[in-house]
UniProtKB/TrEMBL annotation:
InterPro entries associated with the record: ATAP, ATAP_core_dom, FeS_cluster_insertion_CS, HesB-like_dom_sf
Domain Core per the UniProt entry, residue ranges: 6-102
Pfam families hit by this protein: Fe-S_biosyn
A single MF term (Gene Ontology): 4 iron, 4 sulfur cluster binding
Name of the molecule in the record: Iron-sulfur cluster assembly accessory protein
Biological process annotations from GO: iron-sulfur cluster assembly
Length: 107
């Protein structure tokens, strides 16, 4: 059974810190063809569309278009801070492999 993606509290907290919801924006997570492994994530602040899946907490939203949704079933969207930088990350159980940068994967 495919479940919708989950968003961690840490990811919603980061969206709140940058004021995404206050600007009327949401974090859009999409899957596109390309990258070194076949598919790549496109993560950006954007306005929600009518047919998006909206995941919401504390006034912040993460949106996923219906074409990307099957690729992100059961995935976890998080925010991490490391020595090399801070970024939104996706732990995707559907990916059979991924590249070192974490933005490209294959299925």
């Amino acid at each position: 059974m495919n479940l919708p993606p989950k968003v961690t509290d840490r990811a919603f907290a980061r969206l709140s810190e940058i004021g995404a919801g206050a600007q009327g924006k949401a974090l859009r997570v999409a899957v596109e063809g390309g990258g070194c492994s076949g598919f790549q994530y496109d993560i950006k602040l954007d306005e929600p569309a009518d047919d998006d899946l909206v995941l919401e907490a504390s006034g912040e939203r993460v949106v996923i278009d219906e074409i990307s949704l099957p690729f992100l079933a059961n995935a976890t969207i998080d925010f991490t801070e490391e020595l090399i930088g801070a970024r939104f990350t996706i732990e995707n159980p559907n990916a059979s492999s991924s590249c070192g940068c974490g933005t490209s994967f294959s299925m």
